[in-house]
Amino acid sequence: MAGLSLAPIVVMSRAQIAARMLRYPEKEKDGTDAPRVLYRDGINCRPETAVEEFAALRRKHGKQGATRKSPARYELPEDGETPVYIQKRRPNGRKYWAVAKDDEEATHVRHEGEVVRESEAIHMIFSAELASVNPNDPKDVQRLFDYVRDVVENNFRATDGTCGVQAKLVAQADGQGMIDENGRRLTDGGKTHVHVVINAVAMKQMTVNGETWEPGRKLSGALTDIEQIKDRHDAFAREHGADHGFRPQEKSRSERRAETRTVTDRRMAAQGKMSNHDTIRAAFETSMEDHRSVDLDGFREVLKEHDVDMNVRVTKSGKNVGQTNLSYRTGDMKQFVRGARLGSHYAFDDTVDEATGEIISGVGSQLEANAAGAPRQGRPAAHQTAPPKPDPVASDEELAEARETMERLAAQERLDAREDRLDAWIDELAHRERTRRKVMLMHRGLDDRTPAGRAELHSMMEVELEQQEAAAAPEPAHVAVPVDVPVPENVPEDVADSAKDERPRSRPSVRLNANLPPVVTVEDILRRRQEKQEQSTAEIAAFEEKARAALETGEDIVEVTTDAERTTAPEQPEPAVEPVRAERPEETPAVSETTEDASEDTEDTQQAVRQQRQVRERQQSAFQQREQQPDFSKPAAAQPEPEPEQPKKKSARQLAEEEVQRELDRRGLGGQQPSPEPEPVMPPPRRRRK
């Protein structure tokens, strides 16, 4: 298997909340700008909607939010607790807890279990050494990702040949590496690893080791036992690992049993801390090197000096009669941990590797070697990692191809941005014309679906943008004609300079550029408004005085009109009582004429005015009703559709005045414009009856 990379190692844990575990691998870390997620994929689900799909499967089988009662725990008594239970063994060797009798010494107390939430997901991590997978090589990372996907499908193979679970895979390259209990870094950080989050409910029927899981059953047993998963992984690496460029681990799982590493040990070692198990292992090696460690009693005394208690228990009945079991505990631990859980090296009896036949010495053999002065089998050596795999070196042809690809992608990106800008301009043009995009293009005879039509639209857009830039450019300042003020010869120079500074700065009467709009200032607007107000006030006062004199003398009242009304009003206005046949209503006299009899009193005059006002109101109402009635003389198809009103272009002077008006309103000097007089409404023409 020369040239093949070492297969990754696998660890496993459970998660009570699947949604949180599914989001964890893609959560960005603080303090780094490097991308964390290299690849991601889903098995029987989409990675984007894995949270919803996992929950839907659990909800389908009634497992969403399921709870269980945790088993009771038998622990050593704390302060204030009285031991009641003792551990016993049945004839078949099975252990159980029972209440101690009068002649028995109780050792443990019982703590009832709590109602906890069932685990919703299984979390597995496949980690590869830097010597096997280079995180800077995309092809290498893709090779590991495909390998892990095949391993997961093999571990959870359904009866129909497909994968029987839902899983989400995320590849990362930000591993922290492993650190031993002495703070030494065992493996380098930045290793490529793949997170696999598996739904804890079976999706399809699966049969493993003769046991069948139906859809909806919770994963357990051989499907979640890490040792069996590792065995199936080793078998897969031997049979199919070469297809992905991997070979099995140098030591089998049984060989690695000499020192069992738990998830807690690895996590705390990665953080530079020592777990309780690592503390016991370190104290074990130090105590075993002491000259007093030649039997169990001496070894126990030395361990006590290192704050580690060792419990020795000999089986008295059952098939394992005479078997010695060791357990250890530090001062921070509530209960003992079995030596076999720490590894075969920390158990009392020797262990034989079934695969290789190698004997792993236990505590009994190590103490005998110390007593005989022979070398003992020490702690298993830490895993030695190979040097990191070098980064791939690209050839000149690959660099040229990559450069060409980048240029092509950049050109395509610029072209897409140009087309997006054109589409936005077309939508804005249709919005300004208050119509839809398709209707606007049809009226203009354009088509945005053909290359020729889009080329024409591009030209129109560029012309309009150039015009907008030219209009937005600052106008050249007007050059004022200097006004020379004669200064006497005998005046000092400082006084002459001050006289020049106090010259009136008026606008020039000569325009240097006839194409520029006239300059309109705020003073001009205020002066014009003041003149209009004074003129209106004078006309109203004159009209009131003339009306008062007419009422006293009985003369006719003549309406005061402005200059614009004098040019448009007829010389002989017709009486308001007689309707005028015209399409557009003309202006009617605002004040009724007086009667010919000058001796008529004021009350009769006011009554006549009221009657005339009522007649005008009835005529106006009739005219409005006539305007609102549709014309049924023509068929509906013959009536043309109203064309949308085109916005009228404003002159440069109007634009300047509007700008000045906005500036006055912003400063609070705008005031209120005099409201225009309402347009007079004439009665509709009478129709002759046929």
Give the arrangement of secondary structure elements.
Blueprint: E1 5-6, E2 9-15, H1 18-23, E3 37-43, H2 50-60, E4 67-69, E5 73-75, E6 85-89, E7 95-99, E8 109-111, E9 115-117, E10 121-127, H3 138-155, E11 167-172, E12 193-199, E13 206-208, E14 211-213, H4 226-240, E15 246-247, H5 263-270, H6 276-288, H7 296-305, E16 308-314, E17 324-330, E18 337-338, H8 339-342, E19 351-352, E20 359-360, H9 363-372, H10 396-432, H11 437-444, H12 451-472, H13 493-501, H14 522-553, H15 563-568, H16 602-628, H17 652-667
Parallel strand pairs: 1-15
Antiparallel strand pairs: 2-10, 3-11, 4-9, 5-8, 6-7, 10-12, 11-12, 13-14, 16-17, 17-18, 19-20
Helix pairs in contact: 10-11
The count of domains is 5
Poorly predicted tracts of residues: 177-187, 479-485, 498-517, 557-601
CATH topology (fold) name of the largest domain: BirA Bifunctional Protein, domain 2
The biggest sheet, with number of strands, parallel, antiparallel or mixed sense and barrel status, is: 5 strands, antiparallel
- List the strand order in the largest sheet: 2-10-12-11-3
Q: Note the beta-strand portion.
A: 5-15%
Q: At the first level of CATH, what is the class of the largest domain? A: Alpha Beta
Average pLDDT, rounded to a whole number, is 77
Radius of gyration: 50 Å
Q: What is the correct CATH architecture of the largest domain?
A: 2-Layer Sandwich
The DSSP helix count reads: 17
Gross morphology is elongated
Oligomer: single chain
- Ends distance: 115 Å
Helix and strand content put the structural class at alpha+beta
Q: Can you give the helix content as a percent range?
A: 25-40%
Question: What is the number of E strands?
Answer: 20
